[in-house]
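User: For documentation purposes, I need each entry recorded in a consistent format: the amino acid sequence on its own, followed directly by the corresponding structure tokens. There are two entries in this batch. Please keep commentary to a minimum and don't merge the entries.

Assistant: Recorded as requested. Entry 1:
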Amino acid sequence: MNVINLFRIAWKALVRNKLRAFLTMLGIIIGVASVITMVAIGEGSKQSIRDQLSGMGSNMINIRPSSNVTVGGGARLGASSLQTLKVEDVDAIKEKVNFITAVSPGLQASGQVINGALNWPTTIQGVSPDYLPVIREWKIKDGLNFTEEDVRTMAKVCVIGQTIVDNIFTNGQNPIGQTIRFGKIPLKVIGVLAEKGENTFGQDQDDIIIAPYTTVQKRILAVPYVQTIYASAVNEQSSDTATQEITAVLRKQHKLKGSDEDDFSIRTQAELISTISSTSELLTVLLAAIAGISLVVGGIGIMNIMYVSVTERTKEIGLRMSIGARGIDILLQFLVEAILISITGGIIGVALGIGAAELVNVFMQWPILISESSIILSFMVCAVTGVFFGYYPAQKAARLDPIEALRYE
């Protein structure tokens, strides 16, 4: 019996029992649609996280003080260890580390920004001029960035985010050139940042004031140290090498002995992206596995209905055998029928899954990414499901004794 005849017979058998065939497919349809939708949501979330973190500077390296340090004699450093980073460390990194393109001190303070009768709780960040264009890759929408001269003179100038503009310049006036106050310190607005929106952790990136680090360090916080050092590696692949170089420079700067732990911690953006992506990928696999249970249920439904079909068509099987059909012909006939049910359900499931993913994107505003691999994998699973769960009923049909089959009532 040729393949075309096998598919023709299988198709006619399914058409004769349309509702039963559809109900049998339903488990496969739901399973495939669930897998594709869940994977699309998971992959979309992972890509969105990667894009947002990359938007914060994919090559960025964060250096912070560490209080979890034990030095000679077993003494553990206390709160003073949080003041271990100095401007001199920034200069040493800039001079001696080869695999970075920029480095900046970082200081941060919270408080009220005031413009006339309007005020808004926000954060001011003190950095160097390279921080915005190089390290964070953040553009200025209107106005200018501050300069090294502003840093040297502790100039009372700042660049503000769009959220600040929306909340303290409500009359539509141009903020450029206006003087605002952060606490008691007047600051002249010289630039407005391009909008970035919320980051991966739900924090509004536009709710920020950027000023020269010396202004924040001396005029606002009045401290001799820096809270953070930001650096930008030459490229993402160079992050590890840059980290090793920075570690060596800072250990020498801080006069740490070989047995002393680092009094600083270094985190790269690439490391953060990798960690969050791994977590997201694990959740995607978990969701897909849960959705895949429907495929198993659908496969069991196929096996069940094929057993029923074999029982119903026992006389037909006996008749085919009596006119020369071999056991392999009968086996292939029922196996093709099971595969046809599975593949048809898979096609409908793929269409339904893609549609459901698009609806999630439109109505819930969740990012999605429909991958070809998930569709191909779903078809492969459907084919395997049809073969696996259809084989045993087909084998039962093939082993029927033709005489007994013709006598079956």
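Entry 2:
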Amino acid sequence: MLRSNGYADLPEILGLAGMFAVLGPTFAAFILVGVESGRVGMGQLLRRVLETGFSKWWWLPTLLLMPLIGILTALVMSLLGVETPEWAAPTLITALLTSLTILFIGGGLEEFGWRGYALDRMQTGKNALLASLVLGFFWGLWHLPLFFMQGTTQHEAAIPIWEFILQIMVLSVLFTWLYNNTRGSLLVAILFHTIGNTTGALLPLYFASGLGRWINFGILLVTAVAIVLIWGHRTLNHDQPVPQPSLPENN
């Protein structure tokens, strides 16, 4: 951030640190779990990415919900005559490479920290909806440096930080809904995060206009409200047990 804005003449190689900063929530999660329950707990957290013991129906919203919201946003923008940049549909190779990049350095692997560690503890014995909104606030705030770094979506589109955080808070409800209904599957959370960011990268929603972003926010909000009304605000999964923090059996 300092180098990007010309506040300090730092070596170019230090710019690589930004590629690993995205893993901050995950590093923090493994450090905290290590302190709490040692290597056994860290191994349990890592293995949770393999959790697939849930209804296969949940793969549909995991893989398709964010692309559908993105496409619907683009359609509404077109119907309302909102001006958008020139855009061409990406090739399959482009989409796959973008997804892989986002998976590793674009936010996907953050989920060990946000959902795998923080959400488990925030919603245990509490309100899942409130936990989602509070977590979403800090998740959004985590992106603050990007608003001062040239070349990032947040900086180039001049998105107000409060607007970005508000959107992330609503999006967090969708994450909790999927997470709580898939027995705390980190694979689902990682894929949903990766596909959501990929959708935003391939569809020019943020670079279109403030109105385009608000259309996207409105669709997200309607989706989140529907989820809360149908699945209930207490657990977002028809009051079934929510995922609990993983602890070694000998603790």
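Summary note for entry 2:
The radius of gyration is 19 Å.
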